[in-house]
Amino acid sequence: xxxxxxxxxxxxxxxxxxxxxxxxxxxxxVRSSHYAASNxxxxxxxxxxxxxxxxxxxxxxxxxxxxxxxxxxLVEISPSHRDRRHKLSHDYSAIDAHYNFRxxxxxxWCLFGGDDDCKCDDFTDPVSRTEMKGWAQAHEANKxxxxxxxxxxxDVVFLGDEVTExxxxxxxxxxxxxxxxGPMIKEYFxxxxxxxxxxxYEGLALGISGDSTSNLLWRMQHGELPSGLTSKVWWLLxxxxxxxxxxxxxxxxxxxxxxxxxEVSYQHPDDIVVIxxxxxxxxxxxxxxxxxxxxxxxxxxxxxxxxxxxxxxNEFLLWxxxxxxxxxxxxxxxxxxxxxxxxxxxxxxxxxxxDHYKQQTQExxxxxxxxxxxxxxxxxxxxxxxxxxxxxxxxxxADEANDIETKPESR
Length: 411
Prior knowledge:
Elements: H1 3-8, H2 12-18, H3 22-54, H4 56-77, H5 135-148, E1 154-160, H6 162-165, H7 182-193, E2 203-207, H8 213-224, E3 231-237, H9 240-244, H10 250-267, E4 272-276, H11 305-315, H12 319-334, E5 339-343, E6 349-350, E7 363-364, H13 377-395, E8 403-404
Parallel strand pairs: 1-2, 1-3, 3-4, 4-5, 5-8
Antiparallel strand pairs: 6-7
Helix pairs in contact: 3-4, 7-13, 8-10, 10-12
């Protein structure tokens, strides 16, 4: 019998066995691969079981080490509690100008949480820094300047910390010769903010390096705001040392700045009080203002708690906290008469790039802030030009709207 004749008499199922369909072949191939993989898995499990039975102690150690490794990885990739950034829990923008600050109830005084793990000065109890070398002398020098300026027709009085003190060409009352940029900054101030030097405005600068809001309050209450000292505008720049040196929380820093502004407004209720936002600062070597990753080395856990705490604080970027504080200050000024918010932060910021690409992250311009904290001579001049324009708007145009500078301009 021929093959064709034989095949014609076969059962259809027998024909399918001889000539399988493509789909059926593929299905069998998949089943075969699954079966092979299952056999390999079973073989591996059997070998592992035999090994564990033969070497129970080593097997237990390997299992424990593996579990510990995964636990450490999970702990390290989660943000540390000291890196957690707290939110402002209350809206202080609507408080009265003569608010009872002793009644303020804050969630925490310290930047990293709690009330005791920081050196934040209590702004409701002003303190001096007479224990610091040169501070008392700087305070006495300011008192002399303030006393000699009584009954003068002042346009602006600057109150603050080192950025304000350097307008006089000194820091912590050091002689001008010991401050390389002091003479040039002082010369610019006199040409811009004193009529004797050829400026349009008559100004006075009362600042001391390193001061917090509590220190400034003490100074104002002890001779730096004498009777007879008047001005059209009182310019307040303070708060950066509360954050950096005292590690005060954003909430405590906002209230401290407002308490200082309230002190000025209380003594001079009809004058303009300008609250300047805290200037940018960075602890990154490149002046970057971007957050770092929260993933750290596994070996970091072997250090002491004190070392870990210091490392976390050194890595903590203050710029996001500064942004929140400045935003709250701006809202306060919008809601209160005779208070003006002025922000010069953007004058000191820039981004790397060219005609084809510009990075999204901002950095502090080294030429304007060499140490990424204190303005250079050029930085002071850029900021001074913006302040002069703002004074012109306030004094001669009677404009009390908030002002946020957007780009540096040098004249």
